Amino acid sequence: MMHPLSNAAPRRHVVVAGANSPTGRLLLLLLRDSGIRVTALVRRPAPLVADDVISDWTNNPHSIRAIADADAVVLLTGVFGAGCWEDYRAGMVDTAQRVALALAERRTRVVYFSSLLADAASDNWYLKAKGKAEQLLMQLPDSVIFRLGPVVRGSPQPLPFEQALLQPAPAAPVMLFGDLQRTSRPINLGDVATIAEAAALGAGQPGIHELGGPDEHSLEELAQLANGVAVPVERLAGSPSSHTVRDLLARIAAPRDAGLLAATARSFGLRLTPLSLAWPLDAVEV
């Protein structure tokens, strides 16, 4: 007698590289709840919600086979605040190349999160590495690349952009580079994970897409909102080294076309989360 499940469609297989990142951990939960078979690629062993976990993945031949077998690959690897170009290259360019080589000519959906102003010729190592990774992945036929601005999560585990906005000590000013009235549209971490799942499962079109949050505020306003109380904000004189985290945050916290960002969200079926769900916007008048 035929088994009742013999005609069922096989489970889709999604590989998540950098699965122990904040976005990766959320994405694993979403994929599990959708009944997707998930392989998590990590550098160091970690307890994760996945069918398979492959550690030391950049040196492990099992990761090559998993990528080649996948219906979709989500690449979340990144380096932030490293002290030399070689670390950025290894963490972002080499990992993108490993995925590209493993897929060869396959029409596998690849989802990658890049950065606003990503540029292979940039003097900022982070933006340079993101640009070079984009070049490698855009050679694949079904790559979806999201260029993001600042990403926020809220307390008790703020992300790097939020940390740069927090007071270093009580009564101490928040020190920021650039024009304090320059506006930005931070995006919620949950939205990043949600659009990653949608793209991995086939939503949207290949190509490069800019993505940001629904609320626009100046850097000075964002500092008030991130702290939840009125805080002094001062502008740092001069320009930061092009290799520092502060320089990167000053660059990506730039105003974008709100209509374009909203159109990207709609095309992937995403409803953008208000900033108030991460930060108490009613705590401070802006």
TrEMBL record:
NAD(P)-binding domain boundaries: 18-138
Entry superkingdom: Bacteria
Signal sequence segment: none
Xref: Gene3D superfamilies: NAD(P)-binding Rossmann-like Domain
Descriptive protein name: NAD(P)H-binding protein
Organism for this UniProt entry: Herbaspirillum lusitanum
Organism taxonomic ancestry: Bacteria, Pseudomonadati, Pseudomonadota, Betaproteobacteria, Burkholderiales
